[in-house]
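From the pipeline queue, job 12 of 40. The input is one protein chain; the requested action is below.

Action: predict structure.
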Amino acid sequence: MKKNFISICVFCLLINVAYSQNTESPVPQMDEAVRNLAREIHTKLVETRAEKIVIGQFTFLGSQPPFSAYWVNQLAGELVNIPRRNYTILSGNAADAQWTIIGEIVQVADIIRVYTRLIRSSDRALEGSFISNFQRSEFINNMLHHTAVSGGASSGGSDPWEPDSWDSPVTFTIGTNANTPLMNRILTEGDEDFFLLVPERDGRLTMETTGNIDTYMHFYNYDTGDELASDDDSGQGLNARIVFNVRAGTRYLAIVRGFNSSVTGPYGFRAFLIVREGASSFENPISYEIGVGENNVTTVNRTLQQGDEDFFLLIPSRDGRLTIETTGRTDTYMELYDANRELLDENDDGGQNTNARIRYNVRAGSRYIALVRGYSSSSTGSYGFRAFFSEAGLLSADEYEPDDEPSLAKWIQIGETQTRTFNSADDVDWIRFQITNAGRYVINTRGVNNNRLDTYIELFDSNLNLIAEDDDGGDGLNARLSINLGVGTYFLKVWCLDDEPNQAYTVNILAQ
């Protein structure tokens, strides 16, 4: 172990020397891939409000060659040099790290692929996964094989469909039910298998593996190269399973690999798209007449079979906030699309119990499609569907609109009280104020009728850095902040957590 560590360090030293003697890096493709990866990871770390990060091992065929050490070193350097980051990169196996970055390196034909995973340290839950691809070179090959463990093929195996690759995938004929025959494949060390899938109709495509090995699956649009989904253990046992809405005639690619490069053995692959006679579709949706008021609306009763989905056409007669929901005991999932099939919103259990509910601001005369399915293929049974506008309607926009972004923020004076409205649940109010005397200040929001309007406030400095935030610090559901502020300009963002705001609110800033 010590000997290998020394050889890795010596090899990395040679890399550094070579780099210092040349104007270009000896591994520019790898360096560019690391930079892109660092940007993706940074975005995820900011979203999760990560604080302490450690970068762990990146293995190749069960070992850590100089490639691994160089990759980890470059990744750490890129993350450390990102400006205004809110997290710290710890060295070594830091025990107090909240997140760990680890990965595997594989070879596929002339491609080097690095799988990177962001793991929550407390429960080993996967928070994010990333893929980096670049061309192999002789220099990179030396970095990979300098101390790598031999004895396993990097790609190819003993099944009759090898060798396969992105450019030469195995075509799999999509079945029409869950009993579609399996294609039996074998994963060798570091291997990946490529399956080309071309559906003959729109629908919800199920792809899954079977067997006793720990598989991982990636799903791509074959022509654009965009990754659409990935999965580890959603199937039975340690098997991968992906369910995705596909378009007729579009070419897709499923890639199956072991969870890490050391996972080997036989497995089965299949893909099927259940077709039910007389089923609705994007092209032939069920027309639904939108109601007004929760108690004056028609419920359409439907039955979901295994892998089934229903499509409802909605054409609102007016602008407004539309409620779309299911009823009953079946665990439903809903997606809302526009006429161009762009996904607008989706929901699992926003309704009562396990029912789905979406509230969305719609435009009169526009076509919308609501897709309803079971939460999983095993979620079957009867359910009700309905869509309606609220009888109360939306509140009118206040005199400070438009103020939905910082550049449109309106001024408020210290001690002044302003009355504002949320004309939809998505409405956001930006407010600007000036502090001329440093001290402690209180920021209050309150519904004009009662304290049941659920407001949320965020406070930013002049550079739009978040300073503080509050949800229910005041009476009831009112937001309230008490904070020491220095001289300068500040921005306040006020938004509402209610789906249908039913009253105006007041906001003021007072010196304590």
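Job complete. The chain has a mean pLDDT of 83.
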